[in-house]
């Protein structure tokens, strides 16, 4: 079972979890990274810490992590700079990037670990506007993989360096968000069943256009994905119209949704988006 919703900390997350951490305090972030990696060690995962600094400085960041030197020598804990895994400043090719992490996950499993856990400070990948949509798409692509494979990730974004709407978009394509400021009133993320996305939280007139944009980025192009509304707390007519448009079956035209509440389905019938 994956965690979803707003969480006070990254502690206690499992082998398939994907959490967004918008942060404004470097010290708090360091403690969260340590907690996240410590849980991964307890679960038997290989650990990977990714950041914009040179690898030597990333190693220094982990100096207070218990047995970090031994773990790095053994290969149980690794560090990687953004430049070593990505092409900062360029839009991410989501499929190519996924092959990198899928390969690392498979390697960890072959070497006896229960999976891979990645703590990544990736603000440096979204400093240029031309990278934004591709990065949101990448987060959604990675999340679909994590729902079914033992890769868990903590994605950290510095709110002091990024526009708030961008941070909101990035948070909204994670199932779990460490957020006390209401930056993600809804979330779109991979469900436990394949070809299923979950919609959690609330969608109204003010956020319907945001949902429309994120569905366009998060939904795979094959047209088979179903949107599960069981975690949705509230959807008004504006949200339902965006959902109906983005999830329409190419043959019947009917929205590919499931588990809508009785109230949501009745509203959908009244406005003509559900049969």
Please provide a written account of the structure.
By secondary structure, the protein is an alpha/beta fold. The chain folds into two domains: 1-182, 3-Layer(aba) Sandwich (Rossmann fold); 185-275, STAS domain (Transcription Regulator spoIIAA, 2-Layer Sandwich), CATH 3.30.750.24. It is 39% helix and 21% strand. The protein contains ten helices and twelve strands. The chain has helices at residues 26-42, 55-61, 68-74, 82-85, 94-110, 132-146, 164-172, 208-218, 237-246, 262-270; strands spanning 5-6, 18-23, 46-51, 77-81, 116-121, 151-158, 176-177, 186-190, 196-203, 226-228, 232-235, 257-258. Strands 1-7-2-6-5-3-4 form a seven-stranded parallel β-sheet, sandwiched between helices. Helix 5 (94-110) runs parallel beside helix 6 (132-146) and helix 8 runs parallel beside helix 9. The two termini are 32 Å apart.
From the 3D coordinates, which CATH architecture of the largest domain would you assign? 3-Layer(aba) Sandwich
Find the structural class using helix and strand composition: alpha/beta
The secondary-structure element order is EEHEHHEHHEHEHEEEHEEHEH
CATH superfamily of the largest domain: P-loop containing nucleotide triphosphate hydrolases
Oligomer: single chain
Count of discrete structural domains: 2
Rounded to an integer, what's the Rg over CA atoms?
A: 19 Å
Mean pLDDT: 93
The rough form would be described as elongated
């Amino acid at each position: 079972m994956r965690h979803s919703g707003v969480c006070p900390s990254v502690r206690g997350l499992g082998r398939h979890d994907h959490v967004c951490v918008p942060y404004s305090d470097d010290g708090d972030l360091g403690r969260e990274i340590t907690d996240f990696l410590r849980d991964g060690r307890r679960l038997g995962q290989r650990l990977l810490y990714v950041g914009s600094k040179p690898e030597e400085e990333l190693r220094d960041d982990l100096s207070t992590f218990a047995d970090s030197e031994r773990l790095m020598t053994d290969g149980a804990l690794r560090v990687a700079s953004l430049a070593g895994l990505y092409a900062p400043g360029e839009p991410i090719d989501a499929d190519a990037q996924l092959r990198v992490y899928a390969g690392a996950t498979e390697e960890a499993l072959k070497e006896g670990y229960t999976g891979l856990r990645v703590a990544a400070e990736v603000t440096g990948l979204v400093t240029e506007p031309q990278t934004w949509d591709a990065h949101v798409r990448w987060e959604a692509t990675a999340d679909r993989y994590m729902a079914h494979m033992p890769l868990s990730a903590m994605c950290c974004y510095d709110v002091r360096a990024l526009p708030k709407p961008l941070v909101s978009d990035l948070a909204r394509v994670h199932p779990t968000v460490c957020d006390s400021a209401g930056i993600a009133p809804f979330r779109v993320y991979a469900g436990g069943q394949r070809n299923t996305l979950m919609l959690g939280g609330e969608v109204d007139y003010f956020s319907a256009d945001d949902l429309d944009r994120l569905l366009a980025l998060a939904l795979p192009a094959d047209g088979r994905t179903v949107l599960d509304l069981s975690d949705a707390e509230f959807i008004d007519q504006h949200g339902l119209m965006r959902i109906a448009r983005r999830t329409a079956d190419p043959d019947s035209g009917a929205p590919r949704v499931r588990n809508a509440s009785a109230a949501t389905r009745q509203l959908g019938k009244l406005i003509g988006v559900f049969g």
